[in-house]
Amino acid sequence: MVSIINKENTMPHTIPAIGLGTFRLQGQVVIDSVRTGLELGYRHIDTAQIYGNEAEVGEAIAASGVQRDELFVTTKIWTDNLAAGKLIPSLKESLKKLRVEQLDLTLIHWPSPQDAVPVAEYMQALLEAKRQGLTREIGISNFTIGHMQQAIDAIGAQEIATNQVEIHPYLQNRKVIAFAREHGIHLTAYMPLAYGKVMTDLVIAAIAQRHGANPAQVALAWSLQQGFAVIPSSTKRANLAANLEAVHIKLTDEEMSAIAELDAGERIANPEGIAPVWD
C-alpha cells in the first residue's frame, strides 16, 4: 500500500496514490471494471451510496480472490443520510452491500445542501462511526474552505484523512488546496482527466510525447507530483493498465508550470441544488 506524505507536514495517510473510481458505472460494467482493475493491481476502490453500485462493487471484490487486508475501500455518505440518526444506519447498509465488515475510508460526499444539517452534526456522527469500528478513517468531499473550517472545529483536522475534490488541469482549486495543506489535510483529486478533455490538449500531448507517454498519464502524473491521490475510472483494460504507469513519470518544473497555466476554472461536477457556493 502506498503511503502519501504531504510535503507540508509529516502525517502519513494510507490512501493508495492511484485508486479506481466507479462514478457512473453500473451493473455488469462496474463489475467488469473493478474485476479488471484488481487483476491489474489496483488496490483502492472508490464508490459512493449515490452511485447505486455498492452491491456490484462488493460482488466484484468478493469474487476477486484479493485478500481484504490488501484492499482500500472507500464509500461516501449521501446528503439524504447526513442527519445524526441516519448516518450510521446508512453506513451499515453500505457495509452489507460491499460485503465488508469495515470500510477503510468513509467520506461525507457533499456538505448538506443549503447547510440544512449542520456540519458539526454529521462530522461528529461520522467520527462516532469510526469509534464503533465501521470505518478505519473518515474524511470529506466537495468541502469549501468554510465547510472545512467547520469540520475542523467539530472533530479536529487530525481526524480528516482527506478532502476529495475535483482537481484537473482546467480546475486547479488552488484556494481549497492551500487551506487544506495549511491544516495538514490530504487531498484526493477526482475527475483528474477532466472527463477525457486532457486527451486532446496540445500542451499535455507535447509533454506526453517527450516522455513516451499518453496525455492521461501526464495529467495523472501532474496530480501525483503535487501529492494528491487520484481516482480515475475506465471500462477499458488498456486504459486501466496505462493509468497505473503514471507513477513512473517525472515531470520537469517547466512541464508542471506549463500545465499549471491551463487552469481556467472549468468545473465539471456542479449539481444544481447540491453544490455549495464554491471558493
Overview of the molecule:
The protein has 279 residues and is of the alpha/beta class. The protein is 39% helix and 15% strand. The chain has helices at residues 27-40, 54-64, 84-98, 119-131, 145-155, 174-182, 202-211, 215-224, 237-244, 253-260; strands at residues 4-5, 12-13, 20-21, 44-46, 72-77, 103-108, 135-141, 160-166, 187-190, 229-230. It has an 8-stranded parallel sheet. The chain has a two-stranded antiparallel ribbon with strand order 1-2. A hairpin with a 6-residue loop joins strand 1 (4-5) and strand 2. Helix 4 packs across helix 5. The chain is globular, with a radius of gyration of 18 Å. Residues 1-13 have low confidence and may be disordered.
Considering the chains and any ligands shown, give keywords for the structure.
single chain; 279 residues; alpha/beta; eight-stranded parallel sheet; two-stranded antiparallel ribbon; 10 helices; 10 strands; 39% helix; globular; disordered N terminus
Range of strand content: 5-15%
In the predicted model, the low-confidence regions spanning at least 5 consecutive residues are 1-13
Adjacency order of strands in the biggest sheet: 3-4-5-6-7-8-9-10
> Terminal Cα separation, in Å?
33 Å
Average pLDDT score? 95
Largest sheet: 8 strands, parallel
SSE ordering: EEEHEHEHEHEHEHEHHEHH
In DSSP terms, counting alpha (H) and pi (I) runs of 4 or more, how many helices? 10
> How many strands?
10
